[in-house]
Specification:
Elements lengths: L4 H6 L2 H17 L4 H15 L3 H31 L24 H4 L14 E3 L4 H18 L3 E4 L2 E8 L2 E6 L2 H11 L1 E5 L5 E3 L4 H8 L11 E3 L3 E2 L5 E2 L3 E3 L4 E3 L14 H11 L11 H16 L9 E6 L6 H13 L4 E3 L5 H12 L5 E7 L6 H7 L3 E5 L6 E5 L3 E7 L5 H4 L2 E5 L18 H7 L1 H17 L14 H14 L8 H8 L1 H17 L4 E2 H8 L12 H14 L4 E2 L2 E8 L5 E7 L6 E3 L50 H5 L22 E3 L4
Parallel strand pairs: 1-5, 7-11, 12-17, 12-18, 13-14, 14-17
Antiparallel strand pairs: 2-3, 3-4, 5-6, 8-9, 10-11, 15-16, 19-22, 20-21, 21-22, 23-24
Helix pairs in contact: 2-4, 3-4, 6-8, 9-16, 10-11, 10-16, 10-17, 11-15, 12-13, 16-17, 20-21
Length: about 700
């Protein structure tokens, strides 16, 4: 209904009165359509030169008159029916008298002007209307203006997050309807305009908040990582300024004051920094030189995680007995980079529970995920997938909506004689300690009795030492280490291995084969099974049911807990999964088909020359750090750094006794961590630390 106000005002009074009646009648006809009614009443008020309030009163009066007339007509029909009169048909009801009659001259009297109420809102105002996009855009503008002053709202994957900080650190908090209402209800005043143009304060309506969260590309900056210390960016520079850095997409909130870091560290500065970052490790009984190197690798990872293109492996802190200090070592290695901002989870019982726990940690951008105190064999396809993922996708709990966030967490696992599946062992590096004592918790000869307190007090110097080593690696041209990269973790190998090599810290990745042999309970079981298979059947093609008799001698094969027939079927499926794989020097192949087309299996000796790999070097006698203010009575257990003076051997657990020869009993016979019935005899002959193990010996 288009109305031209100039034409109406110029009409003669009679015509104007008639037109007003028509307009009010038509508005009454569409009163049940609020959107059309709202738009057309404003046009009518403008054209007639009256207020919206007057139009509404006229329409309301007309609707009331119509209802009153219809009620009177209905009562008349009922009265006639009761008097045996023939009521008029429903479709031919008489038009009630006065239904369309409204005195147009009185419409101006209904226009009672009201004094606008005082405006009581301050700051940004979001005016609510039926236009969804317009209101959401106003709300986004409020958030963007707030972000320019205090950056705290970002995009993390496909999540809208807010930076939350407390005494333990900074986390990314995903926003939902309630959290968004809490923020926008304080950053702006939400109002609705009444008929007289006055603003009425309201709460932020949920429909607009949901529309904002559903935006596939919210107008917010992207974030990938939060940090509480200066870190190495992907471009090779060290981020030192607090706040959000758009180039690296890192938000840094640090209270650490550092002395200047040399742009090109000297050899002396490099050695001093390398020694100092190992000072907190003095009281830990590392089993091999590689274990100590991996501890330093975990320490450095928090400063270079963003510069690594791709995933990082799980760091297994392992020991044969409780009380060795596994959790303490994890705290010591992670506190300099992360403070108290470390997420701790326990091992789940199934993949569905793993998925929930990992998603809850990753969606908040937890910088560290510490799987603490593992007490059963670790086997999870979900965890294995997370360890090699650069982006994590999962269904939101209680919803069909998918979460998609980047993975920038550092992975740590602690436990005693931890065993794990093949897929997890391949994604893990080990930090093994062996106290060689029955009750290591009874030790008293610590150099730092309150070690974690010492780390916190010296945090700034530890951070500076780490950054000096990183600067030295960058200054040297970011060289690759002289080791074969760990599969799926080539970027991590390049950065961490390169820094350790520049720092002169030896042993990186030297014990990865030993970990695979000793912690991989699934691989242990298959090697024992193949060995027993070859001894009984040699290269003869056999059925899976024939091989089932062999499995009775082997514990640890994943055949389920059903009856014999179900376990035989499971064995056939497992053999299919291992087809063409070389295990213990033998290749599992199909040997044709037998009676009733049953698949036969056989072993074929591998023609490939057996791969040899080192066990890694045992820790050398300790040397005192080159610090004049320290008495040097307790040095590093096997520091091995060039330029460090030799000192008397002083093992932590048995100071009056020399260490046992060779690898130590725990490395050979300490298979009590849940590997089933796979005996240590599988390893064959005993080798000294400097010798090699061959696959034929396994």
């Amino acid at each position: 209904m288009q109305v031209n106000d100039t034409t109406i005002l110029d009409l003669k009074p009679r015509l104007k009165t008639a037109l007003i009646g028509v307009i009010v009648s038509r508005l009454a006809d569409i009163a049940n359509d609020p959107i059309r009614f709202d738009l057309q009443k404003k046009e009518a008020a403008k054209g007639l030169g009256v207020s919206i309030s007057a139009i509404q009163k006229a329409v309301k009066k007309l609707i009331g008159d119509r209802k009153e007339a219809e009620t009177k007509a209905r009562l008349d029909r009922e009265e006639a029916y009761e008097a045996n009169a023939n009521p008029p048909p429903r479709g031919d009801r008489p038009v009630p008298e006065g239904v369309s009659s409204i005195d147009p001259e009185n419409i101006l009297e209904m226009d009672e002007p009201k004094t606008p109420g005082p405006r009581t809102v301050d700051g940004p105002v979001i005016e609510v209307s039926p236009f969804l996009g317009k209101v959401s855009w106003q709300a986004w503008e409020v958030l963007r203006a707030h972000n320019e002053k205090t950056p705290e709202f970002f995009r993390f994957g496909n999540e809208v997050i807010r930076i939350n900080s407390d005494q333990y650190g900074v986390i990314l908090k995903p926003q939902n309807v309630d959290r968004l209402r809490h923020v926008l209800g304080r950053l702006a005043s939400w109002v609705k305009t009444d008929a007289d143009g006055n603003h009425k304060a309201i709460l932020p309506p949920e429909v607009f908040l949901r529309d904002m969260l559903a935006d596939p590309e919210p107008p917010l900056p992207e974030i990938e990582q939060v940090s509480s210390v200066p870190v190495l960016t992907e471009g090779g520079s060290i981020l030192t300024n607090n706040g959000y850095d758009p180039a690296s997409r890192i938000f840094m909130q640090s209270s650490i004051h550092l002395a200047p870091i040399p742009e090109h560290p000297t050899e002396k500065e490099i050695k001093t920094a390398a020694v100092f970052i190992q000072e907190p490790l003095t009281d830990f009984p590392f089993e091999w030189e590689a274990d100590r190197a991996h501890a330093v690798a975990l320490f450095l990872l928090g400063f270079v995680r963003h510069a690594i293109d791709g995933p990082t492996p799980n760091h297994l802190i392992d020991a044969p007995v409780p009380g060795t200090g596994k959790s303490l070592l994890a705290d010591v290695l992670l506190t300099p980079a992360y403070g108290s901002n470390k997420g701790i989870v326990t091992a789940a019982n199934d993949d569905d529970e793993w998925r929930k726990r990992l998603t809850a940690q990753l969606v908040e951008g937890r910088p560290v995920i510490n799987i603490d105190n593992v007490r059963r064999p670790l086997d999870s396809g979900t965890l294995a997938a997370a360890l090699t993922a650069s982006v994590w996708e999962d269904r939101r709990l209680g919803s069909t909506e998918m979460i998609r966030v980047p993975v920038r967490a550092v992975w740590v696992t602690t436990g005693n004689n931890v065993v794990m599946s093949t897929e997890l062992a391949r994604r893990t590096i080990r930090i093994r300690m062996d106290p060689r004592a029955e009750s290591p918790e009874d030790r008293t000869d610590f150099k730092y009795p309150e070690l974690l307190k010492w780390v916190r007090e010296n945090r700034s110097e530890l951070v500076r030492s780490a950054l000096i080593l990183i600067k030295a690696w960058v200054s040297a041209g970011k060289p690759h280490p002289a080791v074969h990269p760990l599969g799926s973790y080539e970027g991590w190998t390049h950065v961490i291995g390169g820094i350790l090599e520049v720092a002169g810290i030896l042993g990186f990745l030297e014990n990865r084969k030993a970990l695979f042999l000793e912690s991989d309970f699934e691989g242990q079981a298959w090697r024992a099974f193949v060995c027993a298979w070859w001894e009984k059947f040699n290269s003869e093609p056999v059925k899976a049911s024939d091989l089932y008799e062999v499995t009775n001698e082997i514990e640890g094969l994943p055949l389920g807990t059903g009856n014999d027939q179900a376990r035989k079927t499971a064995l056939g499926k497992r053999l299919g999964n291992q087809r063409n794989r070389i295990i213990g020097g033998y290749r599992i192949e199909k040997g044709g088909t037998g009676h009733k087309s049953i698949v036969l299996w056989k072993l074929v000796p591998s023609e490939k020359k057996s791969e040899k790999f080192p066990r890694g070097k045992e820790m050398t006698p300790p040397s005192p750090p080159p610090y004049p203010e320290q008495d040097g009575t307790r040095g590093f257990n096997g520091g091995g750094l060039e330029g460090m003076s030799e000192g008397p051997f002083d093992p932590l657990q048995t100071p009056s006794q020399p260490p046992p020869p060779g690898n130590g009993s725990s490395y050979r016979n300490g298979w009590d961590g849940g590997g089933g019935g796979v005996k240590s005899a599988i390893l064959g002959k005993k080798n000294s630390p400097g010798e090699f193990l061959e696959e034929e010996d396994i």
